[in-house]
Amino acid sequence: MNLTTRIVRAKAGLVVVDMQERLLAAIPEREQLVQNVILLARAAAVLGLPIFATEQYRKGLGPTVPEVASAIAGFTPIEKLGFSVCSGPGFTGTLEYHRISEIILCGIEAHVCVLQSCLDLLEQKCRVFVVADAIASRSDENHQLAVERMRDARAAIVSTEMIVFELLQRAGTDEFKRMLPLLK
Fold first, then answer.
1. Which domains are present in the chain?
2. What is the C-alpha to C-alpha distance for residues 140 and 156, in angstroms, rounded to an integer?
3. Alpha helix locations (H) across 12-114?
4. Which of 22, 38, 94, 153 is 20 to 30 Å from 172 by CA-CA measure?
């Protein structure tokens, strides 16, 4: 991945990984994580980006938390048993169908499902933008190690505001005006 190149909005999609009740309960600072994921989902909606959500073994880990699910119009998660989102039935085909090659990646846990998703997506020649303040693990050490590993693998590491403003590109547009209240 060319890390100096901006994200290409026409090729971008948001992937929300496993924001489920039982996983989230063990995450420190979960309120901020949920808020950042919701902001990303709302920004994607305003900008017309496709949003893909996954759930890891829903029977055991519960559904996506209601706040996140309700922020995604037409919420229909892809259930998976493998850790990577690419293991979800139809996930890769759906990306290809929508011509998505630039992935904004958020969710939990950073060192398991987010990391393995990132590595698989990079292997499939996608450009991956990992939103560091919208991913989390149960421990800070696992979060940090996951971010370092993803950076080493050539994913771009960004923050929620970085990627939102990069996608917006300029002030004064209708999209910017719609996003402004969410960014305050």
1. 11-183 (3.40.50.850)
2. 20
3. 21-24, 30-47, 58-61, 66-70, 91-97
4. 38
